[in-house]
Every structure is written in C-alpha cells, then in structure tokens.
Amino acid sequence: MPVVVRASGMRRTETPNAVMTTVASPTQGPSSRLSMWRVEMRPGQRGPRHIFDSEQVWHVLDGQVEISAGGDLLTLGPGDAIVLAAGLERQISAVTAAHLIVSGHATATATASGEAMAGVVPAWIS
User: pTM for the whole thing?
Assistant: First the structure.
C-alpha cells in the first residue's frame, strides 16, 4: 500500500551551511532503507569537505552550485544531477540561492575530511 508523506510531517534541520528538509527516511517513514531530502542554500554557503561511505544522487532544482569532488570542480545548474560515489571527498558550495533534492542510503555515514573518528549518520538522513 502506498504511503504519503505530507509536507507537515517533514523534518527540517538547519545548519550554518544549509537547511535540509527530510522528505522520507527510516526514522520518519515510510522508507526502510532509503532517504530523500531537500537542500536549500543561500549564495556563498558552503558545506564542509567530507566523505560518505555510500553513493548519493544530487539533483539541482534551481540555482547554481559548485561541487568539488575527487579533485574536480563542477558547476551544476537547474536540471543537472550528479552521482557522487562512496568514498569520494566532496564539498558543495552555492554560487546563487539554490534548491536541490538528494537521495541516498539511510545508513550512510559522513566523515569530515581530516577527522580520525568514525563517521556519523546526519540527522536529515537517518
């Protein structure tokens, strides 16, 4: 049976780098293994350099972002998507105000570059 996730049931997490709105995840329902979240960034906002232990798909809804990934600097605009492989160091930066949708594994752990400690599952993914 299909399960609808209403906007009123979505979880919002704000960091200095962006606002993430969890659309679906295991802790929020109805997904058991996948997560999907929306990312909103203001011009100039930049996430930390980090690595995930599983792949993610990022899709730009509007605006422009720069993604530093594996030594490449890529510029993405509305309609563009990128698949970021597990273990690939990445950093997302907003050139303009930007809205993206991201999907990935619900148990994905992130480790900030240079940290020796094991990764954590970000709140918007779990």
Answer: 0.91
